[in-house]
Design goal:
This protein has 2 domains: 38 residues, N-terminal domain of TfIIb, CATH 2.20.25; 104 residues, 2-Layer Sandwich (GMP Synthetase, Chain A, domain 3), CATH 3.30.300. The chain is 31% helix and 39% strand. It is built from 3 helices and 7 strands; from the N terminus they run βββαββααββ. Strand 6 and strand 7 form a beta hairpin.
Length: 144
């Protein structure tokens, strides 16, 4: 896997992935940025959400669950001292579908966090990471 980050101006950078995708990164105004792009640590947090959502969706699809939508909300705290690593991350899954099995959802979320998500495995050395979930049936029933 390869990537490249190139300085644009002020505190703005463009990150280019080996797969040919780009994203603008920028610092906060108090650090010379102009708020034109995502912060690097936000990108890491989004990476965790994307990694675990990918795992969970793939497992549920393999279990023949009728998933309509998946959303992961992430809430994190960072250390006050430098380096400002994540110290706590809470990930909450909302999974929409028809007749979804709570057993399958719980297992998928658990396996992603405990075994499959590479980003979780890297971050768990500095952060306490928790996962919660809820099922929203397309008929309106909520199970958590």
């Amino acid at each position: 896997m390869q990537a490249r980050v190139k300085w644009l101006d002020h505190m703005s950078f463009v990150g280019e992935s080996g797969s040919g995708h780009s994203v603008v990164l920028d610092g906060s105004p108090e650090h010379g940025g102009r708020n034109l792009g995502i912060r690097p640590m936000e990108m890491v947090l989004i990476g965790l959400g994307g990694c675990t959502a990918f795992d969970v969706l793939l497992m549920l699809q393999k279990s023949r669950q009728n998933v309509v939508d998946v959303e992961v909300s992430l809430d994190a705290e960072r250390a006050t001292d430098i380096p400002h690593v994540f110290t706590r991350i809470d990930a909450h899954f909302k999974i929409w579908g028809t007749a979804l099995s709570a057993k399958h959802v719980e297992r998928a979320v658990s396996l992603s966090g405990d075994k499959y998500c590479s980003v979780t495995k890297m971050l768990e050395h500095s952060a306490a990471i928790s996962y919660t979930w809820e099922i929203i049936d397309t008929d309106g029933t909520i199970e958590a």
